[in-house]
């Protein structure tokens, strides 16, 4: 009798990515907030917006809401995020 063992790992080579450099300050920066669009995120992101502006003196807070909470962000949001200094993604119910 032959026993065959399968390897469930990916056979492709995974590229190693370095994280983006850490910001030294949020002052004057543009921060993007990506919401999954569920009801619980509205109050959360409103509070985060207020904190970012008052405490950390960010220049601009941009809120974008995904059209489908269980899918990745749309290409338009990802393209726009390339112009932000920082992105925060959140979810809620």
UniProtKB/TrEMBL annotation:
Residues of the UGSC-like domain = 5-93
Can you name this protein? UGSC-like domain-containing protein
- Recorded source organism is SAR86 cluster bacterium
Its organism's taxonomic lineage begins at:
Bacteria, Pseudomonadati, Pseudomonadota, Gammaproteobacteria, SAR86 cluster
